[in-house]
Write a structure and sequence with these properties.
single chain, 334 residues, mainly alpha, 12 helices, elongated, EcsC family protein
């Protein structure tokens, strides 16, 4: 039809029920319907004016924003408040249960700490008990085994041998932990600490022999002095009687426990599986032994006595002194 709007550009509109019944679909009907719908509706309740004025006010206010209906928000807030109100009794019921579980948790932590302290004290006692049994060579025996060496060269030989020994212990424990077994790990750490302590105590005693600083006294007194030297990582000062006559009291055992605890923490990587712990243990034990020997030697050099100026010392009869010590211990116990 010429001059008519194409069908694809005609605006869509929703038919009213009366139009659907009458079947009016022409352009005239549509224009009439749109005109009727856009016409302003006069207000039946005039407010300070004529009905026309009220209608004009209403038509002018059609561009103003319509306030949102906050009924949905109020419903959501009500539901949240109801959920919180329902959760308060459950929370009140859970607070006493939580409070009642706190003493049990504290008790578990306390028992765990007591168990660790007991294990550390037992390991310290084992190190103290094994210390007198470590054989020590005197200066005459060392000079016979390594003839023609100066004190520093002889000390280097002793440090190298001890470092190889502790490295072997670390590699052995690491190899044993190739397949990790958690219940066996504390025993493996204890075995490593005991073996390394015995090797290093022997090294400390023989370094004192090389530098002419043998502590006076019997086997028990010398062992106490060497244990203190191992715990404090310094040489024994034979000019101070307090360092020689100190019994294994609280201070000495506390220092030993601290030293053993440091070693245990440093030796934890030795328990890595698949032979990694063996390599790590060998390297770390060698490094720690050399570091300890360097501290001891640095302290002993300041008080070193030349071999020519040394008084004649009695040879160390370790077997006889150990038998006497065991006999005295049995008499005390019996």
């Amino acid at each position: 039809m010429t001059g008519a709007t194409p069908f694809r550009k005609r605006p869509f509109r929703r038919k009213k029920a009366s139009e659907a019944q009458q079947g009016g679909t022409g352009p005239t009907d549509a224009a009439q319907a749109s005109a009727e719908s856009s016409a302003p509706v006069p207000s039946s309740d005039p407010v300070d004016g004529t009905p026309g004025e009220a209608a004009g006010v209403q038509s002018e206010g059609q561009d103003l924003p319509v306030p949102l209906d906050d009924s949905k928000g109020s419903v959501t807030g009500t539901r949240r408040l109801a959920a919180l109100t329902k959760g308060v009794p459950a929370l009140k019921k859970g607070v006493p249960a939580l409070k009642s579980s706190v003493p049990a948790l504290k008790n578990g932590v306390r028992k765990g700490g007591e168990g660790a302290k007991a294990a550390l004290a037992h390991l310290t006692d084992r190190v103290i008990e094994n210390a007198p049994r470590v054989p020590v060579r005197d200066l005459a025996t060392l000079r016979k085994q390594f003839p023609g060496l100066t004190p520093e060269q002889l000390a280097d030989k002793l440090v190298a041998g001890a470092a190889n020994g502790t490295s072997t212990v670390g590699a052995g424990i690491g190899a044993a932990a190739m397949m990790p077994v958690p219940p066996a790990m504390p025993a493996e750490l204890a075995a490593e600490i005991t073996g390394v302590a015995a090797i290093e105590l022997k090294l400390i005693a023989e370094l004192h022999e090389v530098y002419g600083q043998r502590p006076p006294g019997n086997l028990k007194q010398r062992t106490i002095a060497y244990l203190g030297s191992w715990a404090e990582e310094r040489g024994v000062d034979i000019t101070k009687p307090t360092t020689l006559n100190a019994a294994l009291g609280g201070q000495m055992k506390r220092e030993l426990r601290q030293q053993i605890m440091k070693r245990m923490v440093r030796n934890l990587p030795n328990l890595m599986p698949f032979m990694v712990g063996a390599a790590v243990g060998a390297v770390m034990n060698r490094r720690d032994t050399k570091k300890l020997a360097e501290h001891i030697r640095k302290d002993l050099r300041t008080r070193q006595v030349p071999w020519d100026a040394l008084p004649e010392l009695p040879p160390l009869d370790h077997a006889r002194e150990l038998r006497e010590l065991e006999a005295a211990r049995k008499e005390l116990e019996g």
